[in-house]
Every structure is written in C-alpha cells, then in structure tokens.
Design goal:
With 208 residues, this protein is mainly α. Helices cover 70% and strands 0% of the residues. It has one domain (3-205). Helix 1 (3-15) crosses helix 7 and helix 4 (93-107) runs antiparallel to helix 5 (113-134).
Amino acid sequence: MDDDRLALIQLVARRYRQLQGFRTVTDGVFLLLMPLVFRWDGHGFLNPGAMVSGTILFVAAASLAQHVVTARYDRRFGRAGGPSAGDRREPSVLAFYVAYALGVIAAQLTDTTWLRASVVLVALGAGPLWVCYRDWPHRAHWLLPVLAAIAGSAIFTGVRTVQEIAGWSVLVWRAGGLALIAAGLLDHALLVKAMTRDARETPQSVKP
C-alpha cells in the first residue's frame, strides 16, 4: 500500500461521518432554499412571522434530511471509523446562517471598508478553511466555500442600505449553497474511493 493510499484510509477512519458528503449536499440544498424561508418584504426587512415559522420548519426538515442520509450511509458502509469518527459535523447550513448573521451585524458596527470585509470573511470562511487545512491535500475542495466567502466579503464592502443587504444575502446564500454542494459531492467521491477500492484495505482495519 502506497503512502497516499494509507493516508486516505487513515483520513476516512478519522473523519468517516464528516466525509459522508451527501450530508453536506443536503446542507447546500437547504442553503439555496433559505431565501424562500427567510423572505424579505417590500421594504427589505425580514418578515417576523416568516422568520419564526420558517426557522422551526427549516430546522425540522434539515434534521430529518440529515437523519435519512446518515441512515443510508450506515446501510451502505456500516458504522466505520475509529472513536474519533463520531457525529461531529463540518460547517452546516445552520452554522453558516449563524455565522452570516453575526458577520453582518458585526460589520454594520463599523464604516471601515477593510474591517467590514474582514469580519464577513472570517465569519463565513473560517470553518471551511479549517477543514481544508486540517485534511490537506485530500479535502482541498473545501477551498470552494472559502472562495465563496472571499467573493461575498469583497462584495459586502459596497453594501450600505438594508435593501442592498437583502440582495447581498440572497447572493451569498446561493453561492455558499452551490459551494457546499460541490464540496459534499467531492467528499462523497473521496469516501467511496477509500471504501470500495480494495475490500482488504477497509478503514475499519486502520487505526486513526
């Protein structure tokens, strides 16, 4: 077994749950749907009723989807991986939304252009960047959400009014959703590659 193959198997042993890419794809899909849930009224402000009811429905549907996807992975591959390959998640759609909200609020506290961009960039890009750094080079594709965060922060420098924040939010949710879908599909491909290439070299037999 070559070193790259061994490193891949060890990665799967440590990150089995996180590499279940269709969980991330589900997050990306829900992120694309977010503008429909947290819709804006004609004045650019979030509709309070839509926010409350939408959040409850959103959390319930996302949790159910994650449960269904996880069960399918368990049926296909079993509960593989070592003790550290538990249910810890990569940045999820809900974490993305919280980071987005905190970033926007913090950025509104200053008029300094570079500081506004930096706050949004850290809020949206720190999580994906950590995944990329931690599991380099196998998960270099997590640079895609990082690039989406960079683009979003750059555009945010020119955002001032509430209406502009509304338009920017939809753009960021769509870009982030597409980036998460792409990262999830590539994570899934990585997992399948490691789990099916050779039955004699399963991640269960390799200690993390």
